[in-house]
Amino acid sequence: MRSANLSLVLRRLRDEGPRSRARLATELGLTRSAVSALVGELEDRGLVRRGGVERGGLGRPGTAVELDGGAVCGIGAEVNVNHVATMALDLAGDVVAEHRLDLDANRLAVDEVLDRLAELVLTTDAEVRATGRTTVGCVVGVAGLLDRTHEVLTVGPNLHWKNVPVGAGLRARLGGEYPVTIDNESNLAAVAEATPGDAARQDILVIFGEVGMGGGIVVDGRPLRGHQGYAGEFGHMIVEPGGRRCGCGRVGCWETVAGMRALLDAAADPDDPVRDPDLSLADRLAEINRRAELGDARTLAALDQLGSWIGVGAAMLANALNPAAIVLSGYYAELGDHLRPAIAEQLLAGVLAPQAGGTRVEFSTLGFTAAVRGGATVALEAVFDDPTVVAPRSDALTGGTR
């Protein structure tokens, strides 16, 4: 019961922001003395601290309580086709450390890619510890179908990986006791978009585009993974029967008309510098945006075609799930202003319900950090679920143990 009440207080502060002890007592249905004791314990664990003065209520102003980011961090990590990356977030949601290493996972052996990722995780963890914080967990996102029970990447069409034991491989490199969890990178990107306390961001779909295309479903603020954890593989819906063959081996997948390859094929000749495989994704998108801003007809036509195909698939998903919002993340967000009109047109035309069933189209502001940010957020859930996983600071002073 104590752990559950500590969790209630901590989640309320995360979801609703700083508030006084009196206000917490009223909102949570607890006595003021109980809330004061709970806040005192959370303070001792370094999870909350005193904030400013809360005004606006009846009676004397009270001192607000707020999340304290000084004690713990969660680390998010990602394996994708053209990079590995990490990010550490503290409990208050602030970035403590961040790293990204560009590489071509298709040209490297699996072991070498995992070596590079493990090095980034260890570097990030060392930076967290150098600030006096503790890492409570690391959640790693991988691109492809993931067997979460066994932490095996069953199929990674764009990575060209099959039946890779990612979890076991990373633990062998980080040490068997290191707190690692493996998840799908698009699911983690979806978690990062579900803003706590924002009712309009609790039931959303996230469509994530990079080299490939994936997505995630968030219901009541939590990811919906499906019966065996394979939900969200939007990129492999068949939208063009008889179309181009996909990296998964099938024909006409959404990814074949809305992925990066489709955009480049439409926008540039094979020898165009924008298609140089050594060009970073950021530089490639910057050049496409530059050409669009200059009014290049071929680029604008390619972006309009891309937006139309995104809208076709988005309408299918909106008909099936009627989310509050469809959030376009990854490289789609970088091109958002040029894609929006065609997406909106197809969504209105393709959704049966009036005005697209109220589904909004939004573009992520997280760039290519969504998956690692989501991983760090999921890692920190262990603390919000049970704050007693963090040792009281008084134990260190008295020599006690948890």
TrEMBL record:
Q: Which stretches are annotated as coiled coil?
A: none
Every copy of the HTH marR-type domain together lies at 8-54
Q: Which InterPro entries match?
A: ATPase_NBD, HTH_MarR-typ, ROK, WH-like_DNA-bd_sf, WH_DNA-bd_sf
Gene3D superfamilies per record: 3.30.420.40, Winged helix-like DNA-binding domain superfamily/Winged helix DNA-binding domain
One short Pfam name that applies is ROK
* CDD domains in UniProt: ASKHA_ATPase_ROK_BsXylR-like (cd24076)
Protein family (similarity comment): Belongs to the ROK (NagC/XylR) family.
PANTHER family, per database record: BIFUNCTIONAL UDP-N-ACETYLGLUCOSAMINE 2-EPIMERASE_N-ACETYLMANNOSAMINE KINASE, ROK (REPRESSOR, ORF, KINASE) FAMILY
From the Swiss-Prot or TrEMBL record, give the protein name. Answer: ROK family transcriptional regulator
